[in-house]
From TrEMBL, chain A:
It comes from the Bacteria. One of its GO terms (cellular component) is plasma membrane. Its main location: membrane. Residues 114-327 form the ABC transmembrane type-1 domain. Pfam families: BPD_transp_1. Residues 37-47 have a biased composition (Low complexity). Residues 1-47 are annotated as: Disordered. Belongs to the binding-protein-dependent transport system permease family. Residues 26-36 have a biased composition (Basic and acidic residues). This is Sugar ABC transporter permease. Keywords: Cell membrane, Membrane, Transmembrane, Transmembrane helix, Transport. It is found in: Cell membrane. It comes from Streptomyces radicis. GO terms for biological process: transmembrane transport.
Automatic annotation (TrEMBL), chain B:
This is Carbohydrate ABC transporter permease. Keywords: Cell membrane, Membrane, Transmembrane, Transmembrane helix, Transport. The chain crosses the membrane at residues 35-57, 101-126, 138-161, 173-193, 214-236, 273-294. PROSITE patterns: ABC_TM1. Gene3D superfamilies: MetI-like. The lineage of its organism: Bacteria, Bacillati, Actinomycetota, Actinomycetes, Kitasatosporales. Its main location: membrane.
Length: 341, 308
């Protein structure tokens, strides 16, 4: 994520483009060929900037069309829809801020969905980070069969978003599920976990945490980059295991913690399949798993309140922007990028 | 990490190290005995693995049991083995035709992979190797769409595809891929192509290659690892996708495996869970299979780019 924008810095590119990208590009004028590397005298090197642009934009054509037709256009249209009432049959009717007013004042289910989603994010993301970091640290102690363990731990990340696993989840946390069978050994009798409004959401939290493997793999790669000398120095100073974790491992790993945190938050806000399948598409029981996305889907595509759904989408975008903005702000105080500070 | 040091024979013993009297909890004993420590670590790992993977193993086990025994045990094996669930699930149901669903999923997946590979590599080549007007602004757009929640475009895209009459075709799910809307893969490939040495480009240029020639003959062959990662992740994402097909594919003939499973779940009474588990197991086989075949490549990709 921490890459600079255009091109690796200071890499000669030949063909008259041997300029550091960091200074080129912004104002867009490709450098004249006279400034080029010696190789720019090679065949066909005297193309003008127009031709350069033409070549580049030829490569970019599919993406540009996609960007306009499938991303920017729809975004603008959805911004417009957010201020209308629209049910696909009649033309959109402008109603001003009515959708937003309704959301925050007369639609308790909307507030429920915000509550459910925030609860989910606040439980699943920290849990996932702790579990993935802890296992990465154990794996990093020079165990044998590392790649085997790594692959097996990673596997749930691949299938955790599938309907098959969500369906399985509904069974294992159900009345007769294996969780209850296991708990019966210790004498606990709970009934269905997915059928109980108090616990249904947490079964989906568990499903999310179950997919900690991808975060773990990233942590593992980061742990291997930490210079041994730091630990040796800490040991010489008599630092305890806890102290080494706090003063060496966590600061050195903080960019990756930040990265995984960001990724986890963005993913958790957009969770859908698990909630849909576990609750049978209703967000139940008693709206306890009514995720934001699920409610948006219900409003937009089951009840055809497309204006309202568009408004919800924009509230989500703004909410997510504020949330990630705060994360970025806070990162100044706890994320350390090596030599920079 | 001192224990690891002790566990590695080639390193000289650290005689200068002071006694660690202040170490806590797990500190002392394992350090003195690397074997014990290794056993402890492996036990933790294996316990965690069993805990994690048990539900999957149980599902596979349950899928081979007769219907009336599916939920009877916490164990993996009851002794009565049957493949009835698979035959029933695959061809049995009246409306649920899983061979059709698998074919649909496969078609969709292949088209998506091809679309993503071609469009994302073209785009990435331009961003990584060419200079052009508005490059920075456009690349900022790519990064911007990385974090954009898909919800914003969900409703208007549906309206668009509905207007075009594309509902109940694969087009709404494939055409965006052909148009490089997966910013993650563009980003992944830009990173990869940037790291390739430019000397080969120059050599190709001297030999008379234009941009297209360099792209096709130099950059694409050298980018096989990045292309492979893209293909595998596209495969997994498309195969698992549920919301997209649910929106656009409403005729049972066009359903994917995900939809088949979901509607199986809606329709089943307790008696058919065996078949549900059988079909679920089958639906996971391609993903797990691909992963095992290419796990090293995949994990390198994740570790360097953070792709999920």
């Amino acid at each position: 994520m921490k890459e600079n924008d255009t091109g690796g810095p200071h890499v000669p590119r030949g063909r008259g483009r041997a300029v550091a990208d960091t200074e080129g590009g912004a104002e867009g004028r490709p450098r004249a060929d006279t400034k080029g590397s010696p190789k720019s005298s090679a065949k066909g090197s005297t193309k003008g900037s127009a031709e350069h642009n033409a070549a580049a934009y030829a490569f970019l054509t599919p993406w540009l069309i996609g960007m306009l037709v499938f991303t920017i256009g729809p975004m603008l249209f959805s911004l417009y829809l957010a201020f209308t009432r629209y049910d696909l049959a009649d033309p959109p009717e402008w109603i001003g801020l009515e959708n937003f007013r309704r959301m925050f004042t007369t639609d308790p289910r909307f507030l429920t969905s915000v509550d459910v989603t925030l609860t989910y994010v606040l439980w699943s993301v920290p849990l996932l980070l702790v579990v993935s970091l802890a296992l990465a640290m154990v794996l990093n102690r020079g165990l044998r069969f590392l790649s085997g363990y790594r692959a097996l731990f990673y596997m749930p990340s691949l299938i955790g978003g599938s309907v098959a696993v969500a369906a399985l989840w509904r069974q294992i946390f159900g009345e007769e599920g294996i969780v209850n069978k296991a708990l019966a050994f210790v004498g606990i009798d709970h009934g269905s976990w997915v059928g109980d409004p108090a616990s249904a959401l947490y079964t989906i939290v568990v499903l999310q945490v179950w997919t900690f493997g991808s975060a773990m793999v990233i942590f593992l790669a980061g742990l291997r980059q930490i210079p041994r000398e730091l630990y040796d120095a800490a040991a010489v100073d008599g630092a305890s295991a806890w102290r080494r974790l706090r003063s060496v491992t966590l600061p050195m790993l903080s960019p990756l913690v930040f990265f995984n945190l960001l990724l986890g938050v963005v993913n958790a806000f957009q969770a859908f399949t698990g909630a849909y399948v576990v609750s049978n598409g209703t967000g139940g029981p008693a709206d306890s798993t009514l995720f934001y996305t699920l409610y948006l889907y219900e409003q937009g595509f089951a009840q055809l309140n497309m204006g309202y759904a568009a408004a919800m989408a924009w509230v989500l975008v703004l909410g997510l922007a504020v949330f990630t903005g705060l994360l970025f702000l806070s990162s100044r105080y706890w994320v350390h990028y090596g030599d920079e500070r | 990490m001192t224990a690891t040091t002790a566990a590695r024979p080639p390193r000289p013993p650290h005689t200068t190290r002071p006694p660690r009297t202040r170490r806590l909890l797990f500190g002392n004993r394992p350090t003195r005995n690397p074997l014990l420590r290794a056993i402890a670590s492996h036990s933790v790992m294996i316990m965690a693995l069993v805990l994690m993977l048990y539900p999957l193993l149980w599902m596979v086990g349950a899928s081979f049991r007769p219907d009336n025994q599916v939920f009877t045990t916490l164990g993996l094996w009851t002794g009565d083995v049957t493949t009835e669930n698979y035959t029933n699930g695959w061809g049995g149901g009246d409306q649920l035709n899983f061979s059709r669903f698998f074919l649909n999923s496969l078609t969709l997946t292949v088209l998506s992979i091809v679309g993503n590979l071609i469009s994302c590599s073209l785009t990435a080549y331009a961003f990584a190797r060419l200079e052009f007007r508005f490059k920075r602004t456009l690349f900022a757009l790519v990064i911007g769409t990385l974090l954009l929640p898909y919800h914003v475009t969900l409703v208007p895209q549906y309206i668009l595809f509905n207007q075009l009459g594309w509902v109940n075709t694969f087009l709404p799910l494939v055409v965006p891929k052909i148009m490089a809307t997966d910013a993650f893969f563009i980003f992944l490939m830009v990173q990869f192509i940037r790291a390739l040495p430019t000397s080969l480009d120059d050599a190709a240029r001297i030999d008379g290659c234009g941009h297209w020639g360099i792209f096709r003959r130099v950059v694409v062959p050298l980018s096989i690892p990045a292309l492979g990662t893209t293909a595998l992740f596209t495969f997994i994402n498309t195969w698992n996708d549920f919301l997209g097909p649910m929106l656009y594919l409403t005729e049972p003939d066009t359903w994917t495996v995900s939809q088949g499973l979901a509607s199986f779940l809606d329709a089943t009474g307790q008696s058919e869970y065996g078949s549900l588990f059988a079909m679920s197991t089958l639906s996971l086989v391609p993903v797990v299979g691909f992963f095992i075949a290419a796990q090293r490549l995949l994990i390198e990709g994740i570790a360097t780019t953070g792709l999920k």
